[in-house]
Amino acid sequence: MPNSLFRRLTKKFFIISNIILAVLFLLGCYGGLFNPQYWWPLGFLTLATFYLLLLLIVFIIFWIFVKPGWSLISFAAIILAYKPITNIVPLRFSSSFTQQKQAAAIRMMSWNVEHFDILEHKTHPEKKQEMLQLVNDYQPDIACFQEMVGSDSVPNAINYVPEMMQQMGMQYFNYSYNRKVDFDGNHHFGIITFSKYPIINKQTISYYPYDYNSIFQYTDIVKEADTFRVFNIHLQSLKFSSGNLKFIDNPEIKSQQDMTESKNLIYKLRIGFSKRKTQSERIKEEMNKSPYPVMVCGDFNDVPNSYAYTTIGKGLQNAFAEKGSGIGRTFTGISPTLRIDNIFVSDIFSVEQYTRIDKKLSDHFPIFADIQLKK
């Protein structure tokens, strides 16, 4: 084959590959606009968006040395996706966080506490104390925990809520759980909001089948003359098995078992996309009814360009996007790009600062945001 023909074919291959990559990237960036019950394959692109961005950058570098004009394909895709990109990776190199907050600010905390490691309490009681100490170190005014295992009625329970409140310097709480998924005879399993400010209203919203991920809560909290509504949510978990996680770490198809794990993984992801779609719409419906400014904290189990994130976050500010930097990973496993925990607030607030605490005390990192009513 003549060299000129080989070069032409190679050039066409790279151009077509670049165009296909750019289209997949844009679909991933705007995947949150598509109904995942019908367009569920786009969910995989939303998960892969950061890596698709890296490949576009590789193409830019490649074309600069080969044929600079073709780098416009990648540049155009990145420019068209400017807003989603800033949600995934804010265009700032660093962000600072002052542990001592301003007097007028409200410090929000969101953390999937993974049961407070209650199963290991007898052998490693220090884990729980380390977690409580972290809360005390940062002194949140409002703390929203997911996967909370505790008791609000059994004083000798390991995680007795009134005792934990005292240890964290909190005065009020709203605990939502369903007895269907109780942890044991003494403890419930649910979501809880702690507050240093008075709570004037508590509400748990529950839908069939009334399991853990089909409930969420809101809490009306008063600070001085201002009232605001805090939503604490935990969207559908992926429920990956140990076999699923092993396949993710080493995704090779060498046996029938590998094929089965692959199909099982895709099925769980598809179900998760669909259930979070329904859950996020129900949460947004309740948010739209709020007579007060809203704050939303929780484990979304989905990425910033997903349908759930887009639906709940519409019209709100995301604390990480406003003041965070880098990738902002909040889940400690699977992928270094999974920022699935969020704090959203109404536009009436300004986000003063944000941080993620890089301590692996749970399978999620805790996040904090200082917010303040705009003057």
Topology summary:
Layout lengths: L2 H27 L12 H25 L5 H9 L1 H7 L17 E7 L13 H13 L3 E9 L10 H8 L3 E6 L10 E8 L3 E8 L8 E9 L2 E9 L7 H8 L6 H33 L5 E6 L7 H7 L3 E2 H5 L17 E5 L3 E8 L10 E7 L2
Parallel strand pairs: 1-2, 7-8
Antiparallel strand pairs: 1-12, 2-4, 3-4, 5-6, 6-7, 8-10, 9-10, 11-12
Helix pairs in contact: 1-2, 1-3, 2-3, 8-9
Keywords:
375 residues, alpha+beta, Deoxyribonuclease I, Chain A, 2 domains, 6-stranded mixed β-sheet, 10 helices, 12 strands, 22% strand, elongated
Short structural description:
The protein has 10 helices and 12 strands.
Overview of this structure, please?
- By secondary structure, this protein is an alpha+beta fold.
- The protein folds into two domains: 3-88, no CATH class; 106-373, 4-Layer Sandwich (Deoxyribonuclease I, Chain A), CATH 3.60.10.10.
- Helices cover 38% and strands 22% of the residues.
- It has helices spanning 3-29, 42-66, 72-80, 82-88, 126-138, 161-168, 242-249, 256-288, 307-313, 319-323; strands spanning 106-112, 142-150, 172-177, 188-195, 199-206, 215-223, 226-234, 294-299, 317-318, 341-345, 349-356, 367-373.
- Strands 3-4-2-1-12-11 form a six-stranded mixed sheet. Strands 5-6-7-8-10-9 form a six-stranded mixed sheet.
- β6 (215-223) and β7 form a beta hairpin.
- α1 packs parallel to α3 (72-80) and α2 runs antiparallel to α3 (72-80).
- The radius of gyration is 23 Å and the shape is elongated.
- The termini are far apart.
